[in-house]
């Protein structure tokens, strides 16, 4: 089953939006399979944002993601990678659609509340980077027959 990696960034935690953000994925019908509240080391931050290494904002990105605790999560479900990104909204919260997490709660690209994997392979890479196998919980929600034919 498809899985994606999501992280509520330090601004989402500091602003008390953890419950609100998780609620959206639960309510949508996706399944939580991993969750941890943690500080991010600069090593992990640099590996996570490796594709942005040459971008001018790389240093501030690493500084920000390591500035306070984050909620790292793995969610499961058919089409979850793309759908989770839709729930997140566009990278810049100022232009992100209302109804998305960034569109509803953010105003600045450097404080955009949440990370979500952008493709299936990215998701696999990020899940392996952030979680050990034994930290992921394989379970069958009883809700399944009410969510899918
Ligand atoms: P996303 O988080 O929507 O996948 P991304 O992968 O292009 O966006 O960039 C990673 C993060 O880097 C993004 O969440 C915020 C920051 N970022 C991206 N573009 C930026 C820019 N032009 N100026 C400042 N920060 C930026
Ligand atoms: Mg990205």
Automatic annotation (TrEMBL):
<keyword id="KW-0547">Nucleotide-binding</keyword>
<feature type="binding site">
    <location>
        <position position="112"/>
    </location>
    <ligand>
        <name>ATP</name>
    </ligand>
</feature>
<dbReference type="InterPro" id="IPR036850">
    <property type="entry name" value="NDK-like_dom_sf"/>
</dbReference>
<dbReference type="GO" id="GO:0006183">
    <property type="term" value="P:GTP biosynthetic process"/>
</dbReference>
<dbReference type="GO" id="GO:0006241">
    <property type="term" value="P:CTP biosynthetic process"/>
</dbReference>
<dbReference type="GO" id="GO:0046872">
    <property type="term" value="F:metal ion binding"/>
</dbReference>
<keyword id="KW-0479">Metal-binding</keyword>
<dbReference type="InterPro" id="IPR023005">
    <property type="entry name" value="Nucleoside_diP_kinase_AS"/>
</dbReference>
<keyword id="KW-0067">ATP-binding</keyword>
<keyword id="KW-0963">Cytoplasm</keyword>
<dbReference type="Pfam" id="PF00334">
    <property type="entry name" value="NDK"/>
</dbReference>
<feature type="domain" description="Nucleoside diphosphate kinase-like">
    <location>
        <begin position="1"/>
        <end position="138"/>
    </location>
</feature>
<dbReference type="GO" id="GO:0006228">
    <property type="term" value="P:UTP biosynthetic process"/>
</dbReference>
<comment type="function">
    <text>Major role in the synthesis of nucleoside triphosphates other than ATP. The ATP gamma phosphate is transferred to the NDP beta phosphate via a ping-pong mechanism, using a phosphorylated active-site intermediate.</text>
</comment>
<feature type="binding site">
    <location>
        <position position="102"/>
    </location>
    <ligand>
        <name>ATP</name>
    </ligand>
</feature>
<keyword id="KW-0460">Magnesium</keyword>
<comment type="similarity">
    <text>Belongs to the NDK family.</text>
</comment>
<feature type="active site" description="Pros-phosphohistidine intermediate">
    <location>
        <position position="115"/>
    </location>
</feature>
<comment type="function">
    <text>(Microbial infection) Catalyzes the phosphorylation of dZDP to dZTP, when the bacterium is infected by a phage that produces the substrate for the synthesis of dZTP (2- amino-2'-deoxyadenosine 5'-triphosphate), which is then used by the phage as a DNA polymerase substrate.</text>
</comment>
<comment type="subunit">
    <text>Homotetramer.</text>
</comment>
<keyword id="KW-0546">Nucleotide metabolism</keyword>
<keyword id="KW-0808">Transferase</keyword>
<dbReference type="GO" id="GO:0004550">
    <property type="term" value="F:nucleoside diphosphate kinase activity"/>
</dbReference>
<dbReference type="GO" id="GO:0005524">
    <property type="term" value="F:ATP binding"/>
</dbReference>
<keyword id="KW-0597">Phosphoprotein</keyword>
<dbReference type="InterPro" id="IPR034907">
    <property type="entry name" value="NDK-like_dom"/>
</dbReference>
<feature type="binding site">
    <location>
        <position position="57"/>
    </location>
    <ligand>
        <name>ATP</name>
    </ligand>
</feature>
<dbReference type="InterPro" id="IPR001564">
    <property type="entry name" value="Nucleoside_diP_kinase"/>
</dbReference>
<protein>
    <recommendedName>
        <fullName>Nucleoside diphosphate kinase</fullName>
        <ecNumber>2.7.4.6</ecNumber>
    </recommendedName>
</protein>
<keyword id="KW-0418">Kinase</keyword>
<feature type="binding site">
    <location>
        <position position="91"/>
    </location>
    <ligand>
        <name>ATP</name>
    </ligand>
</feature>
<feature type="binding site">
    <location>
        <position position="9"/>
    </location>
    <ligand>
        <name>ATP</name>
    </ligand>
</feature>
<dbReference type="GO" id="GO:0005737">
    <property type="term" value="C:cytoplasm"/>
</dbReference>
<feature type="binding site">
    <location>
        <position position="85"/>
    </location>
    <ligand>
        <name>ATP</name>
    </ligand>
</feature>
């Amino acid at each position: 089953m498809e899985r994606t990696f999501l992280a509520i960034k330090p601004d989402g935690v500091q602003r008390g939006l953890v419950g609100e953000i998780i609620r959206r994925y639960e309510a949508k019908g996706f399944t939580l399979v991993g969750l941890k509240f943690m500080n991010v080391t600069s090593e992990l931050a640099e590996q996570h944002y490796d594709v942005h290494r040459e971008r001018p904002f790389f240093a501030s990105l690493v500084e920000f993601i390591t500035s306070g605790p984050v909620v790292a999560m793995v969610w499961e479900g058919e089409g979850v990678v793309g759908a989770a990104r839709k729930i997140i909204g566009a990278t810049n919260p100022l232009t992100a659609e209302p109804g998305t997490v960034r569109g509803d709660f953010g105003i600045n690209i450097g404080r955009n509340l949440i990370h979500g994997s952008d493709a299936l392979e990215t998701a696999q890479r990020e899940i392996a980077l952030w979680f050990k196998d034994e930290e992921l919980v394989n379970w069958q929600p009883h809700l399944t027959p009410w969510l899918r034919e």
